[in-house]
Automatic annotation (TrEMBL):
<dbReference type="InterPro" id="IPR037107">
    <property type="entry name" value="Put_OMP_sf"/>
</dbReference>
<protein>
    <recommendedName>
        <fullName>Lipid A deacylase LpxR family protein</fullName>
    </recommendedName>
</protein>
<dbReference type="InterPro" id="IPR018707">
    <property type="entry name" value="LpxR"/>
</dbReference>
<dbReference type="Pfam" id="PF09982">
    <property type="entry name" value="LpxR"/>
</dbReference>
<keyword id="KW-0732">Signal</keyword>
<feature type="signal peptide">
    <location>
        <begin position="1"/>
        <end position="22"/>
    </location>
</feature>
Length: 326
């Protein structure tokens, strides 16, 4: 009798295994909404409103069985999800606070870089593998007065922060349509480490917004999931339910730059206003704190770069992001 009971229980357990595995695979949320705020005012002990002055964006990530045939790529992938985003960015030259007290600016050549507004929407795909992931994104939008970046900064200064209103946006880069493609790959060097891990990777941008390539490397310290499920790599939609993260991440990359439309103007119009003397190699560092629990992810990242316009100049700004999964 005992042997029959044991055998019956064994059969039941075998039949239950597939359902348990399915439940395990479903222990993630299907959607995530993220709000992004970039501002160089977050960079303490530094001049604010300089170079990359501010950015505001929203991103919706989701899972679906089919989307434009993208689900058919990479048969060996473990997971795939998609993202839709929209963002506005504002770029200003150095010494804009001096320009704010100037009665009238007569010549845009006084600026070390142009005022530039950028507005775009994007579609991205993330393919997660065993110990790596591949992200691809296409964005389209506009650079110029139609982006409304100057008006938004002026409104915030007048109504929210009380900062000076900058005279100079009337000299911003002219309107131009932009389209750009970005692809990035990241590989985990220590996928089994629990409290410390390192990774390598790189990214490529092609289009009339950016043309550049950048190898990267970094590490994490703290409590974290694998890079394919971590908020530190914009993969928190794959973070299992009831799992949490709290860690520090440092990243370094070297950018080899051929073209930057926010500095150089229109790629296809030699007469368009822009700065030609772009440094083709720059170094970029980022360090951030990341926290995720249940449905919520919060992170703050400080980014520092050197050599974008000139080998002796550097720039810092911070980004604060909040994501909610459902």
């Amino acid at each position: 009798m005992n042997s029959k009971i044991t055998f019956t229980l064994f059969l039941i357990s075998l039949l239950a295994i597939p359902s348990v595995l399915c439940q395990t695979q479903e222990e993630t949320f299907n959607s995530e909404l993220k709000v992004i705020t970039d501002n160089d005012i977050f960079a303490v002990f530094r001049d604010s409103d300089r170079y990359y002055s501010y950015g505001m964006g929203i991103e919706y990530s989701f899972k679906t069985s089919k989307l434009l045939g993208l689900q058919k790529l990479f048969k060996n992938k473990k997971e795939v999800f998609y993202s839709l985003g929209a963002k506005i960015e504002g770029y200003t030259p150095s010494l804009v606070r001096v320009f704010a007290t100037t009665p009238e600016i007569e010549d845009r050549d006084d600026f070390d870089r142009p005022f530039a507004g950028l507005l775009y929407v994007s579609l991205g795909t993330t393919y997660a593998f065993e110990r790596s992931f591949l992200k691809s994104e296409i964005l389209t939008g506009i650079i110029g007065p139609s982006s409304q970046a100057g008006e938004i900064q002026t409104w915030f200064h007048e109504n929210i922060t009380g900062d000076p209103v900058y005279d100079g946006w009337q000299f911003q880069l002219e309107d131009q349509f932009i389209i750009n493609f970005k692809s990035s790959f990241t590989y985990d060097l220590h996928p089994k480490y629990k409290w410390f891990s390192t990774y390598i990777g790189g990214n490529v941008h092609l289009g009339n917004l950016y043309i550049r390539a950048a190898p990267k490397a970094g590490f994490r310290i703290g409590k974290f999931e694998s890079i394919t499920k971590s908020s530190g790599f914009e993969n928190s939609l794959l973070l299992p339910k009831k799992h949490s993260e709290f860690f520090f991440k440092f990243n370094a990359e070297t950018r080899f730059i051929t073209y930057n439309a926010t500095i150089q103007g229109n790629l296809f119009d030699e007469k368009a206003y822009g700065i030609d003397d772009l440094n083709n190699i720059s170094w970029h560092l980022s360090s951030g704190l990341y926290y995720s629990i249940n449905r919520l992810s919060i992170n703050f990242i400080y980014l520092w770069s050197t050599g974008v316009l000139n080998s002796t100049e550097n720039h810092g700004y911070g980004t604060f992001n909040v994501a909610y999964r459902f």
